[in-house]
Amino acid sequence: MDSDGTLFQDMSCFERYCCEKPDCQMICPNNQFWQRDLRELGGLRFEELPRLSQADVSLPNYVPVIDHNYRLRDVIDWPVVALKLSEVFRCKNFVPVAEDAAGLRKYFNLAPTTRIVLRGTDDDPPLERYWQNRHTARACERMARLGIDLVIGPNFSHAADVVRTETQGNRMRQLICLAEMANAGLTVVPHLNAVDSADWWFWGRYLSEQPGIRVVAKEFQTGDKDTEEGRRVIDRIAAIQESTGKCLHLIAVGAAQFAGYIAHRFASFTILDSIPFMRTVAGHREFAVESGEPRWEERFFGPEDPIDALFRHNLSRYSAWVLDAARLGRGNRIALTCLGSKRT
């Protein structure tokens, strides 16, 4: 039986979702690659996972994602930014775009003092390339030279309509990657992938057994962007915070719409998204707030016109809007019972 008590307890997932195709790529007992996959993962039991420890890293309530290094001309002078794994490592062979901290900041036109969060949450293809090439490319060793504050674990796919072993295997792949990164000296952040209550049960137990982990991440850009579902996920993570007795710092990827609700549940959190960058670079739109609601107004720019001033405006105003939403949420914060906190 799997460590969360669910893997083979109910075989209906295999009856419903196992395709039994000879060329299937799922991690499944009916797959011809099952034994190979188990060897690669070291099994699907999680009891012997290494303990991880996070350095004490201070994060603001909002961190912008800089999606790429073209179109903006001025140096981006912002305290903390996030970069995508697939932009820092070239897709073909996963060689990094720079070999040291100064080179990485120069490549993305960042100020020398800008701190960096590496966002492992990404589309499936670059994550699969990372998994396949990480050893030959010495990815963790090279990553450790780039002056990165935090690395958010790769969110290998979790889907509701697949066999349970596929979900378990992808969770194991993330945890293996986190251990490898930590061994290279990086501070890592687990991404709480979950599709059902058994997954949330696992993360609750995992975090209770990992006293060195306080910062966690969750992506809200796909299914969890729905208002009701997003709030349910935030409540799930808040319940883990309550049950473990530790004050978690939640990095909520693509969750600006939930800033107030997150602030209501967490004393410490960070919203991380690329909206100001993309709305400026791709849409040439200017951010404004009307009656407390955000809106984006179109502005005309030619293909060679500088847009740096618009980006600085959007980044500053958007960040302030997130902070205002957080302040409103803090005004209604529920009582916190995690260790080291006072009831509010």
Helix/strand layout:
Elements: H1 12-17, H2 34-41, E1 62-64, E2 80-84, H3 85-88, H4 101-107, E3 115-119, H5 124-133, H6 139-143, E4 150-152, H7 164-183, E5 188-189, H8 197-208, E6 215-219, H9 227-244, E7 249-253, H10 259-265, E8 268-273, H11 275-281, E9 285-290, E10 293-298, H12 308-330
Parallel strand pairs: 1-8, 2-3, 3-4, 4-5, 6-7, 7-8
Antiparallel strand pairs: 9-10
Helix pairs in contact: 8-9, 10-12, 11-12
Task: Give a structural overview.
With 344 residues, this protein is an alpha/beta fold. The protein contains 12 helices and 10 strands.
What labels would you give this structure?
four-stranded parallel β-sheet; disordered C terminus; 344 residues; single chain; TIM Barrel; alpha/beta
Weakly predicted, low-confidence segments: 5-11, 340-344
Instruction: Give the helix tally.
Output: 12
Report the β-strand fraction as a percent range.
5-15%
Report how far the terminal alpha carbons are from each other.
42 Å
- In the sheet with the most strands, the strands line up as 1-8-7-6
CATH H-level superfamily: Queuine tRNA-ribosyltransferase-like
CATH class: Alpha Beta
Compute the average pLDDT. Answer: 86
What's the architecture, going by CATH?
A: Alpha-Beta Barrel
* Helix content percent band: 25-40%
Rg, rounded, reads 21 Å
Question: What is the CATH third-level topology name?
Answer: TIM Barrel
Order of helices and strands: HHEEHHEHHEHEHEHEHEHEEH
